[in-house]
Amino acid sequence: MRSLKCFFLVFLFSCSTGKYAATNKSYKKQVKAFAKIIRETPLKDSIATSSDWVGTTNFGMRKPNFVIIHHTAQNSCEQTLQTFTLPRTQVSAHYVICKDGTIHHMLNDYLRAWHAGNSRWGNLTDVNSSSIGIEIDNTGFEPFTEQQVNSLLILLGALKKNYGIPAANFIGHSDIAPVRKVDPNVTFPWKTLADKGFGLWYGDTSKVTVPQNFNHLLALRIIGYDIRDTGAAIGAFKRHFEMQDKSKILTDADKKILYDLSQKYQ
After folding, report:
1. What is the pLDDT of residue 195?
2. Distance of CA 193 to CAs 33, 65, 169, 173, Å?
3. pTM for this one?
4. What is the b/e burial string over 85-104, where b = at least 16 CB atoms within 10 angstroms of the residue's CB?
């Protein structure tokens, strides 16, 4: 945890200034309330077989196991910060990365942000409870800046090291909510991330032979996609791994990529 604290100090920016003094105060108040709950001793045995509470010595904080990457779909980093500090919006993320590479750490990694919404990945249906949400300042129709990508890679490296997050568990919002979401957009450099160990990628598909009995829906399901809406799942897959979202039909070339990936996710 020491290295994580040092990392946070490196990226401590304007969220601590007077402009957000009121919301920062609210944050501290909520954290204090949660801390009080954690300090409480468990209830006595519900069937009253014992009059004494016995506290276990073997426990720890529940840590994140996934990282979900978003684009903000707003016009500026400042607009997103304001959105995440208004109670009525009911939306938040752990980190926001601005176009100049500035990282705003808005919520302790062990706390549950409200970024994933109604989503699913494999058998996981409460993504918020096991993930860290990262929002990148982007309207949804523009490339991500070099500064943003560089800062993101530094941040992902720290998160992976501190929490032991598997490479396969770095995914996008559209992956977990293909019917509702398209972020991060098609310009997002997933292969760059995968080359650094944040996500999986496919190999040379010219050497891939797809079996005749290949079930592409099962392969999508193996990777993690919710296949209840087949077209949406295919669209999210192609957005992530082919940087295009114009078609929801799998070509032979697509199936080679999908088959190769499905072998890596098993």
Report:
1. 98
2. 37, 17, 12, 15
3. 0.90
4. beeeeeebbbbbbbeebbbb
Mean pLDDT (the chain) is: 91
Give the list of residues 6+ apart from residue 176 with CB closer than 8 angstroms, or none: 68, 116, 119, 120, 121, 127, 224, 226
122 near 128, Cβ under 8 Å? Answer: no
Question: Can you read off the two tokens belonging to residue 120?
Answer: 């699913």
| Bridge partners, 133 (sequence order) | 68
* Residue 107 to residues 112, 115, 171, Cα–Cα distance (Å): 8, 12, 20
Q: Kindly list the catalytic residues.
A: 135
Q: Domains of the chain by range and CATH?
A: 1-26+61-200 (3.40.80.10), 202-266 (no CATH)
- 176-186: pLDDT as tens digits: 999 999 999 99
Asked if the bond preceding 184 is cis, omega within 30° of 0, the reply is: yes
Name the helix (H) or strand (E) containing 81: helix 77-83
The phi and psi torsions of 232 (rounded to 5 degrees) equal -65, -40
Residue 66 in this model has a pLDDT that exceeds 50: yes
Cβ–Cβ under 8 Å, residues 156 and 87: no
Give residue 43's pLDDT band: very low, low, confident or very high (50, 70, 90): low
Residue 114: name the closest of 156, 70, 74 by CA.
70
Q: What is the average per-residue pLDDT within 82-108?
A: 97
* CA pair distance 231, 215, nearest whole angstrom: 15
- Helix, coil or strand: residue 75: coil
